[in-house]
Design a protein that fits this description.
The chain has one domain: Farnesyl Diphosphate Synthase. The chain is about 75% helix and about 0% strand. It is built from 17 helices and two strands. A two-stranded antiparallel sheet has the order 1-2.
Length: about 325
């Protein structure tokens, strides 16, 4: 990731500085929680995509691209704050979640602050097509989160619904980060290709994330193995077993999802390995990563493109 960031190093640093500046509030608790979650680390992948997309099509990033990257990160961070409350999560990126430290109500309200600050920045940019894209994106994310919530504990969830969820709650923000840069650069002929790249990369990213919930190292992922299972989320590894496992294996998975329980986690870890569920998920991730690469085929050959293609490889091999 360090080599990839090098392409937009000064711009990436400018985004971080702008984010810190925009966390200012007359309410101390807003700043405390905002700084806590923003400074927790993370890959800053979504704002990085916005900057790389600008470099790819225009060979430069202006101040509005910096602002767009910050907007993307604020929206993403707001969703994390809200997700941790909904999921009753206590650990993210290897340390206590904001809701574990301050409680649910402050976390939700600071998430709202970050959403509203993102749209204040968009008003400053003053580009209506961009505002339309980000308005639609945040609405889609909210729908995806609600869809995921309604499917929690529902063992009959199928693959199509699963992909509807991850497109909406994860991949659409990847897509908006990339396409938004095309809008700002007035390179509308590149907008769809960049949107497709971001969408497919985001799907691959989430598929790997769901694999890591069953074989990741908590020291690297920053969250506990089996968290999704304990929340009753029917992710693709479990859906695969329900479609292809033995009757006994299906019964174990179905019960765990319905009960929202990780009590039989060791057995389930063995099942998703033995049935080939994780291998199937990897194959799906590879297919979407390849689609992301194909979306950039007609794009200019430059260092930004090289690193965006490299991100497709990193998404598949990541451990956190």
């Amino acid at each position: 990731m360090q080599n990839i960031r090098r392409v937009v190093d000064s711009e990436f640093n400018a985004v971080n500085d702008f984010i810190i500046d925009q966390l200012h509030s007359r309410v101390a608790l807003v700043e405390n929680i905002g700084h806590y979650i923003i400074e927790a680390g993370g890959k800053r992948l979504r704002p990085l995509l916005a900057l790389l997309s600008a470099q790819l099509i225009d060979d430069r990033c202006d101040q509005n691209h910096i602002k767009l990257a910050a907007v993307i990160e604020f929206i993403h961070t707001a969703t994390l704050l809200h997700d941790d409350v909904v999921d009753i999560s206590e650990l993210r990126r290897g340390r206590p979640t904001a809701n574990a430290n301050w409680g649910n109500a402050p976390s939700v309200l600071v998430g709202d602050f970050l959403y509203s600050r993102a749209f204040q920045i968009l008003v400053e940019i003053g580009n209506m097509p961009l505002m339309g894209l980000l308005s639609d994106t945040t609405n889609t994310i909210a729908e995806g989160e609600v869809l995921q919530l309604t499917r929690a504990g529902q063992a009959e969830t199928d693959e199509q619904t699963y992909f509807d969820v991850i497109r909406s709650k994860t991949a659409v923000l990847f897509a908006a980060a990339c396409a938004g840069s095309a809008i700002l650069s007035n390179k509308l002929d590149a907008q769809q290709a960049l949107y497709d790249y971001g969408m497919n990369l985001g799907i691959a990213f989430q598929l790997v994330d769901d694999i890591l919930d069953y074989e990741g190292d908590p020291a690297e992922t920053g969250k506990n193995i089996g968290d999704d299972l304990a929340e009753g989320k029917p992710t693709l590894p479990l859906i695969y077993v329900l479609q292809n496992g033995s009757e006994e294996e299906k019964a174990i998975i179905r019960q765990a999802i319905s009960d929202k329980s990780a009590e039989r986690l060791p057995e389930i870890l063995d099942i998703v390995q033995r049935t080939g569920a994780l291998d199937y998920c990897r194959q799906q991730a590879e297919q979407y990563s390849a689609l992301a690469e194909q979306a950039l085929a007609a794009m200019p050959e430059n260092e930004a493109k090289t690193q965006m293609l490299r991100l497709c490889e990193i998404a598949l091999g990541r451990k956190n």
